[in-house]
Amino acid sequence: MRYRMLVWWVTAGTAATIGYYLLPRDGLASNLLYNTIGFCSALMIVAGVRRYRPRRPAMWYLFAAGQTAAVIGDLVWSYYVYVLHGEPYPSFADVWYLAAYPPLVLGLLQFVRSRTRSDMETLVDAGMVAAGLGLVFWIFVLQPTAATTSASMLEKVISTAYPAADAVLLALLTRMFIGAGARTPSAKLLGTGALLLFAADAAFSVVSLHSGGDGYELSAGWLLSYVFWGAAALHPSMAAEGPPASAAEAGIGRGPVALATACAVLAPAMLFVPQAGASLAGRFAIATVGIVLCVLAFVRTRGLVRKVQRKTTQLEHLATHDDLTGSANRRHFEDVLCQVTAHHSAHVVYLALTGFKSVNDELGRQVGDEVLGHLVARIRGAAPAGALVARMGGDEFALLLTGHSTEAAEHVAARLADTMGEPILAGSNELLVGAGIGIGDSEGASSSAEVLRRAETAMYAAKGTGEPYRRWSPALDEQAGEQARLGAEIRAALDGAQFRVVYQPIVTAPSGRMAGVEALVRWEHPERGPISPAYFIPVAERNGLIVELGAWVLRTACEQMVRWRDDTTATAPGYLSVNVSARQLARPGFPQTVADILATTGLPPTHLTVEVTETAVFDGGHAVQALHQLRALGVRIALDDFGTGHSSLRLLRTVPVDTLKVDKSFIDDITGAGEHRVIAEALIHVCEGLGLTAVAEGVETAEQAEVLHRIGYRLLQGYHFGRPVAADQLTLLPSQPAITA
């Protein structure tokens, strides 16, 4: 219903244009049909304004007035021809013809101001196009028209006024089509109508100069111009206001840039046209426009360089700072620490919150983020001038003090402890979040990593004893004996079959069908009960037992995968994913171990995926060679927790990767519009461009799953779909669908 009147008008106008050429040439009937189309165009514009009620109807009424003036000029000319039997030039009809241009130009000027973006890039591109096309119009139309000898000054003025008005129309059309906001259907119809008017006028000027024709063949351009002006007013989008938000944020498209580039070479190209440079005026015009184009090109290039510099600065800040708190991130902190310790003494004050997890769990992540914001403000307030504050992890922070004494570092730690002991008002809740604080120094440290390790060790010691803060001392390292005792218990657990393997499903979106499973290890201690992998895995990694433990997990999981595949009553997971540590990859015989396990269990290599962390392969060497050997076996490779380590895109070129597992930290806030979502979207584009499979980890809600599917993720994993469970508790789909009556 909304488009019925538009369709009728376009159909009738096109048919009338065709009918004009079927009637006798220069006959009264064809002339009346011509004027009827023009008059109806003005009526359609008024009808469109009355129907859609735009906020700025004045410009549309100006368009209608311009159309009406042109029709009156045609009627006056018809009176001369069919009543007075003469064709005078100039005549009273020319007054109306010329009077049609001011309202059309004023209307287009209002349209351009209200519907297009006015940034520097757009204006410069429009200026380059207008200058180049204007030069061509001057050389081939305006200058020859002005140079013709006329019987009177009035005739010469009127003959020049027509192409001059068309030149103004050309400038507005250039701005209209280059502008980023003028892209509604109504704007396109309006621009096409104005372009047809300009083309017909310009062609008529050329024909009049060189052949003396009456322009009968060009009447289709004027008639179709009437049709498009009316259609623009009848389209519902004519009431749209201003450039859309997406256009305001978008850059200039390839088309306008290519057009501006082509127009930039028109000035030197005109030198090859004999008539262009034959006169002093022509050469002056070419030189002037050439200079203008050079200046505009310089401005455009300078603007592009500034834009690239701004984007580079933004990307550098994004890569080195935490988006929630605005402080430096771990990577930036480690880089600065490395630079500082190479030439100066330094202290690191490391701080980890206590009780923060319960804030997130009980009050929600929004309150937790608000708490972090308040805490960071307090940390900055307690830090001395020149100190670098960084968020090292979810609830861990660090301060880098350069050139400070140990006493000064302890004073800062004490101030931090005092300020952290004050309650925090977050929303309607008054909360108390404590912290463990450790101090590490660079004296005698072999590397910056050692300084950071000392601070973390002291922090854990402070949390363990409940002290406000703790300074590192060699005595703290003696606690490594406890780690050795835990290592002995891990040895006993391996011998006593205390470990078990659990499986977490990896599902396809949006169906939720299980695509694969990830094998995870759990420790059931006979006395202490379940022990978290976060506690015993680092110990096993340090003492080397991770190699034996990892091989056991791999063998057990592969055997279970084969049992699933042999079970004809259920559909087995498509693939098995097993974590492999850096220590395992470093062992020269690891690829052969995998090959032996696959051969023994009978599991096809294509059904096994090995997960490695970025840190394990960042330095290259034997770890990357091992992955290439595994790939040669047919085993697939996945980068686990992608985005939390070094996150170097170089890894995607040097490491044989098949799958990226996007870390949970980027998924937690995926439903918002922050930088985590931007990064998640960027990673899926990287995967698509490189032909990699993307798996989103840590999906905990249906809303997160829906957003991830919408931005392109097809494999999801997390508590929303299932927690890690024993093999006999994992729900498999039946191998054949049930048959119902």
Range of strand content:
5-15%
User: What are the segments in which pLDDT stays under 50 over at least 5 consecutive residues?
Assistant: 244-252, 735-741
Largest beta sheet, briefly? 8 strands, mixed, barrel
Find the count of extended strands (DSSP E, 2+ residues).
Answer: 17
Tally the helices: what do you get?
A: 29
Task: Round the mean pLDDT to the nearest integer and report it.
Answer: 83
Q: What is the helix fraction of residues, given as a range?
A: 55-70%
Q: Which structural category fits the helices and strands?
A: alpha/beta
Give Rg in angstroms: 38 Å
Kindly report the spatial arrangement of strands forming the biggest sheet.
Answer: 9-10-12-13-14-15-16-17
Euclidean distance between termini CA atoms? 46 Å
Principal-axes shape call = elongated
